[in-house]
Write a structure and sequence with these properties.
The structure holds two protein chains of two kinds. Chain A is of the alpha+beta class. Chain A is built from 15 helices and five strands. A five-stranded antiparallel β-sheet of chain A has the order 4-3-2-1-5, with no helix packed on it. Classes of the chains: A alpha+beta, B mainly alpha. The interface between A and B is large, with 92 and 96 residues.
């Protein structure tokens, strides 16, 4: 009995915190589906709803603006399909009040906000840029890390540990420390405002090297000995033995790399200027300045920009969370 | 067999090594060098010794942004340790829906800072924002959130009718709003780290304690907290380092670190000096000071860790 009681308290806590954690997302989505007028009415509701008046003209309903309502007659403007004041009817028209009624529509979703936001600035271009940069970076990271980690884990050479610690020590240096000097250097290379400025410097990832090295070290030595007796070269071992055994660690590293590239902001903000080169995060930040008063559009843009990562996350959440946990503890 | 390959291993590390030297090692050295020069954007400047540093240390704006960053660290780091430890301990006790809660808590961590900054900026909007709607629903006065330069302690004591000197005011409510959002974003990651740390603690300890009559609270403080301390050190170190690097929130949610510079954090200061004012040498000096601070804290925590851990 006591157990059930304490258990339900635990669940109550977890549910309460859970709601607090996702409340911003729920609110983001519900606001993204409101009309701007509804948001501006300042009634902060979670379920988008709408209220409007209609005039029933012999069975045909028109949306209207109610100017004045009296017991017998009401003064109205009739609206057309685009919710503009219709030219087919006089303004300040007087109609019997019995023909005017208030419609409450719950819920009323304005999905068109997503289309409007997407078309307002070239989000399609931003998405393409981000996908291109993320994939290119991923390929680069996987190749350089796979080769380096293999050497660090399974080959013996002079200065191996020294070089590895040099690698590790640079992992601790945060990006803001070297972003200014990197900018000046890329300027000298004439790389500013190019895709390679967004890709090449990030094609090495010390954390991934570290992750691969741990995995390669755990592989049994007998495999390599047997292959060596058969006359297999180092590269042959890498290609035929290590690669097939590394699918899960490659998947883990890919997820980290993709999420990192997708969300990276300061670097592309600084290194690119041309609108065609904007990645999603930079494009979104410019959009938030341009459309600062169009709350519902901003929310729609935020929603569709985090959606791809959330979809990946939901499909692979078990693996992703396990990878983060494992990677964190190995440090 | 291994000794046969004398040069081949170097070929394998070459791609990573070249990229690392070119895009990490050299820029890090370069930012040290640049900090002693009077660099504009393209011109090669003159060597000016420690002048950038002298100017930096005399700049009240630099000290303000350092102080703001320290506030962020002081408030965000303990919260990012205590709350996830509680979350993880609770999650560790349940069987049903465990994965579901874990997923929900982790969600903010994988989403982009830019997008959630936009969302939180609107949450904090004075008119129509969710934060004020909730305050009013609970029967409190609405607040100015991101537009409020007054310190949180000033506001707290003022609401009780006591006025306190401004130097006791604490971080501005605007900065505090950013801190809440930053903590929210990182909770999930730390929870996961703690959860796997907890799973490594053997059940034997708890069983023995239960036999000795120790209740849940006692077990938590006498077994969980000490045995989880390696994880706590990891979380402490990572959260401190990432807190010092906070940038996107300030860029997205505030008007250039306003109101009255109370949300200007050190990385935003570096960005502004380097890329808005184009004082590259000066900004590099600030970056280097930040580097020294982070390095010092890292070494300090490592040292503490070796003393405290079991």
């Amino acid at each position: 009995m006591k157990n059930i009681f304490s258990n339900s308290i635990v669940y109550l806590f977890l549910i309460f915190f859970g709601i607090m954690m996702i409340l911003p997302f729920i609110w983001m989505i519900s606001t993204s589906l409101m009309s701007q007028a509804e948001f501006n009415k300042n009634e902060s509701v979670f379920i988008p709803k709408e209220e409007y008046y209609v005039w029933n003209e012999n069975g045909k309903e028109h949306r209207i603006i109610l100017v004045q309502q009296k017991e017998e007659h009401s003064i109205i403007h009739v609206l057309d399909e685009n919710l503009q004041i219709s030219k087919d009817y006089p303004e300040y028209m007087s109609v019997p009040s019995s023909q005017v009624k208030l419609i409450k529509k719950v819920p009323s979703f304005h999905w068109e906000n997503y289309v409007t936001a997407f078309k307002k600035v070239p989000f399609a271009r931003y998405f393409t840029n981000t996908i291109f940069v993320s994939l290119m970076t991923l390929i680069g990271v996987l190749i350089t890390s796979f080769l380096a980690a293999y050497a660090f884990a399974r080959l013996e050479f002079k200065g191996r540990d020294l070089i590895f610690y040099l690698f590790l020590s640079m992992m601790m240096v945060p990006e803001p420390i070297y972003i200014i000097s990197s900018y000046m250097m890329l300027d000298k290379f004439n790389w500013l405002d190019t895709y390679q400025a967004l890709i090449v410097p990030w094609c090495v990832n010390i954390f991934t090297i570290f992750l691969f090295r741990q995995h390669f070290k755990s592989l049994p030595q007998e495999l390599f000995d047997a292959a060596a007796i058969d006359g297999c070269s180092i590269f042959g071992m890498l290609w035929r033995i290590v690669l097939p055994l590394s699918k899960s660690v490659i998947a883990t590293a890919s997820v980290f790399s993709l999420i990192g590239s997708w969300n990276s902001f300061m670097w592309p903000l600084v290194m690119t200027d041309r609108p065609e080169l904007r990645v999603l995060q930079v494009g979104l930040s410019y959009f938030s300045q341009e459309a600062s008063t169009q709350t519902t559009l901003l929310m729609a843009a935020s929603t569709f920009s985090i959606l791809p990562i959330l979809i990946i996350f939901f499909f692979a959440q078990k693996q992703i969370i396990a990878s983060y946990a494992k990677a964190g503890l190995k440090d | 067999m291994k000794t046969k390959h004398k040069y081949e291993p170097y070929l394998y590390i070459l791609p990573a090594l070249v990229l690392l030297l070119l895009f990490r090692f050299i820029p890090i050295l370069l930012s040290f060098v640049i900090s002693f020069f009077d660099f504009g954007i393209t011109s090669i400047g003159n060597f000016i010794g420690f002048q950038n540093y002298n100017k930096l240390f005399a700049d009240p704006e630099f000290w303000q942004s350092m102080m703001n960053t320290v506030w962020l660290v002081i408030i965000a780091v303990p919260l990012s340790i205590i709350i996830p430890l509680i979350f993880a301990s609770l999650l560790n006790q349940i069987k049903w829906l465990k994965g579901f809660f874990r997923t929900i808590y982790f969600m903010p961590y994988v989403t982009s800072l830019v997008a959630v900054s936009i969302v939180w900026k609107i949450i904090y909007a004075e008119e129509g924002g969710l934060a004020n709607a909730m305050l009013q629903w609970l029967g409190f006065q609405p607040l100015k959130w991101l537009a409020e330069p007054k310190g949180i302690f000033t506001l707290l004591f003022n609401s009780m009718g006591i006025s306190i000197p401004s130097w006791l005011g604490g971080p501005s409510l605007a900065l505090f709003s950013i801190i809440i959002m930053t903590v929210w974003k990182s909770l999930g990651y730390n929870t996961i780290i703690y959860l796997s740390g907890l799973q490594n603690i053997s059940k034997v300890y708890y069983e023995a304690a239960a036999i000795d009559g120790a209740n849940k609270w006692k077990q938590f403080f006498k077994i969980t907290v000490p045995l989880i301390s390696p994880t706590t050190f990891y979380v402490l170190l990572m959260t401190t380092i990432t807190s010092f690097q906070t940038f996107a929130q300030v860029y997205m949610m505030t008007d250039k670190g306003g109101p009255l510079g109370t949300t200007k954090l050190i990385v935003y200061y570096i960005y502004e000096k380097g890329f808005d004012d184009l004082q590259m040498g000066y900004a590099s000096a600030a970056a280097l000071v930040l580097f020294v601070v982070i390095l010092g804290l890292t070494l300090l925590q490592r040292k503490l860790e070796s003393k405290v851990n079991y």
